[in-house]
Amino acid sequence: MVGERQNVWFLRLLKTPLYLLALSVMVPFYWMFTGAFKSVPELKQNPPTFYIHDFTLGNFYNSKLGVSKDILDQGEGLFQKFPNGLGFFGYMLNSLLITASVTTCCLLIASLVSYVLVKRPFPGSTVLFTLLLASMMIPWEVTLIPNFLMVRDLGWINTYSALTIPLMAKAFVVFYFRQAILAIPTDLVDSARIDGANDLRIWWQIVTPLLRPAMAAIAIPVALGVWGDLLWAILVVNDESHSTLPMILAQLAANLNYSPSGAGVVMAASLIVSVPAVVFFALFQRQFVQGLSAGATKG
Amino acid sequence: MRTLITTALSAGLLLGSTGLASKLTIWVIGDENAVKTMQPAVDLYKQAHVGTDFELRAIPGDQAFTKYLAALASQSGPDLITGYLSYGIELGNKGGLVNIKQKYPALLAQIAKTASPAIMKAITSLDGSLYALPFDQTVQLTYYRKDLVKSAPKNWTELSGAIEKLRSSTAAGSGAKGYISQWGNVGWVGYFPYLYQAGGTLYDAKCSKSAINTQAGVDSLKYYANFYTKFKSPTDGWPDLEQGLENGDYAIGSTGNWSLQSIPISRPKLTGKWAVAKLPAGPSGKATAFAGGSLIGITAYSKNADLAADFLKEMYSTRSTVAMIKAAAKIPALWLPAGRQDLATQVSLPADQKAVLNAQLKDTVGPPNCPGWEQSGDVLQKAIQGVVFNGTDPKAALDSVAETMNTNLVKYK
Amino acid sequence: MIHKTTLQQTRTAPLGMSAARPQPRRGVRFFMQKYGPPMGLVLPFVVLFVLFVLWPVLRSLYLSFTDYTGIKAPNLVGATNYVNMLHDPRFYKALRNSLTYMFFTSLISTSVGLLLALSFGGQKLAHQLMRAAFFLPLVAGGVGIIGVWKWIASSEEFGLFNTVRKMFGAESIRFFGDPHYALPLLIVIGVWSVLGYNMVIFVAGLRSIAPEIYEAAAIDGAGPSARFWKITLPLLRPTILYVLVTGMIGTFQEFFTPYVLFSDTNNVGGILDSGLTLTVYLYDVGFRHFEMGAASAIAWLLFTVIFILTLINLRIGRINDLD
Questions:
Q1: Which among B17, B148, B276, C293 could disulfide-bond with B175, CB atoms 3.0 to 4.6 Å apart, if both were Cys?
Q2: Which of C50, C70, C74 is CA-nearest to residue A235?
């Protein structure tokens, strides 16, 4: 008994640094969160303040803009920026639309392929399978340049097509679904076919409902990838109306190099961008973990 | 009257030929403030030419070149771009910008009269092509605490002496950390003025070979490296000079002219305690500073090139230039027109500071216009850092840079 | 024609044994009737896959042997790009940085991730909270948060890290002004961003070990440490290797963090290229100078390294069986 108790005590001691580690992992988020609500003078303060002394929403919307003569005061809030463009919500809507459409199409076309590969193989489907497998090893850097050239030659620069269509065919999604479809009894598919259902109908009425958990899981890495993409967007889009959130964030963050005075708005923007993801995570923790562990092999 | 008719005609022609050719898209390098600076010129143009529409976009500096190249590769994008001084020749050589000398000689002749000669030289190709016009400029200056340093160091010896003296004191707030450099810190932009002050140059006059490994180059590099190795100046990419002066860690420093505007506003504690001076003179007696800045060019794929050129004409007018200086001052920022250096006197600064600024503006050199410099600058940067951080021999480091520069002269001709 | 006969062969081969070729040579119509619908279903994916994955890979290989700049038509230049790359000191610097970053980040994040999984693998609320905390960087990362890191690590007085150091009387560390600190900073952020992921994979791996094995071992008198070394570690071996190798693949391709931290307007690698990784180097060559031929050569080298790592990964075993 005594030995066991000592052991617990010992384990707790061992765990203390890990708790400290957890705390330090949270520090950037804490800094982002507090930074979003600190006023610009407070952000500039030396040494920095460890908690919010002078709470303000001015980084989001500065209602006193232009009224105060004091130049040290807040500048425009996040939602007052980009008056010539779409405004922050406009970019957010762009990003949401792009993410939603890529994710939806990606899941649909990939599940079709998985269904066919498993339940309706055709001559050459093994070749396709092998190609898909091999493609997962290709780092994105290899295809970046030719894809840019392809999009350019298709005349897709500054279109939603450029931001969505090239991102849709993802081999790792096919593989993930393959596992789930292997588990669907072949009898189920066969009997449906005897009843006269065609492949499209079988896929839609039998396979996709059963794939739902797998879809929910794999949607997450797909969506996060699209949501956070910066490089591709920078290359193929150069007008205001198609700009995405990461592009705008990068534009805001570019100034951070020189002084912390722009930091308030950057923190406000980062906060708004990460809140949906965090809420999603809280609601769908299991799917997150499943999906992201499957997405680890994405190419 | 004549200009009115021609512009009306050209606008009419454009409208007639393409139907909706009255929109100009301008990409401005920098942040939202860069857009705000240009806005008055756009507004004035719009007033005079009803129906012309504009789209102004800020392009972050670190993405700008990529975006411009991508736009060029896809043959779609803005009509006008602003960019760093090297962009003109680089994009021009790739066929991305209109050769203004060829297509708009009248516009060029107008600007050439008033533009900063250093900037003009920097952006004109060896064969005389000019792919962009000077937009704005920044110049290095010495900033110092006049309560801690009696007078600004006039030459290299005085500068080292002053730093040594400062560093020997121990009291907090007495400038005991010595000297701080901001713009181009531990890099070629920081080293550049010392090279020229020592009588050296990057290339020979005709861009036929590198001249950096001469005695002047080596001496100035030794002197420059001392700031970091001997005097322990901060080595970050962009140290906070204003704060360093404010809290008295540093008493002398060097950066661009922007701090003239921002110190009075954001560093109230420095009021009455700071001053600005020309850079110290080197062994050659010159107090040359590096002139950076940006240029503005018309893209080769623009369908509205004539309209863009017409806008540029307005932008370089006295009323637009003055309006832009004022708009920048509201941000607040100190905007120095490079195409209208004659109007640099319009900036709102105390008389003594304005005098120093204008004196330094007359003694500047821009980045070289020799082929392959863009590819070589990085190598020089690394060589300087090698001397500072790894103790590489300056002569050997510069010899190897010169070799690369010579190779690139041929390679990118 | 050749194509058609190969299709025919593959079709008849599996059927041949049992059905003894009931009705030979039904022709294209039969083929289309039987395989048309499934082939139609894969068509959308296959078209996109060919256009945006397969063809680009081949094109990139071709481009790596040209002087393409994206503007003028490409000329074949043989292996020049590869030769130039192998003569560029920046390439070796980037390769060394990428390898160092890969090695330390995956090693630290794997071992600490395992430790965390062992300590907080339970169903208790505290354990779940701990897992969520470590998982947060994966969920809410991105451009903004790397900006926050940059801000925290700043040498100026508003930099949080150095402020805390000063409170303990220590000197400031110039993360961005000293080439020695670039990689350590990258590694810290790299570990930070994948730790939670490794942790949950290990938790899943640990849960798949049947409790009976532990019980049996406990009856045999094995202490906690013996159980760990004799049971947990060997049974977890595939998971550990998987985490390690996928971690290596991921870190070797890391672009975003070094780019955001160390790029400024005319330089991408930080002081003396101390923060230059292979992907940033590729970006520099390909998209800041638009030397797409040379950049394609770098991309193919990257591909080769990742290919080898993936082969190791495939040898280690199936990946998807964790859950």
A1: B148
A2: C70
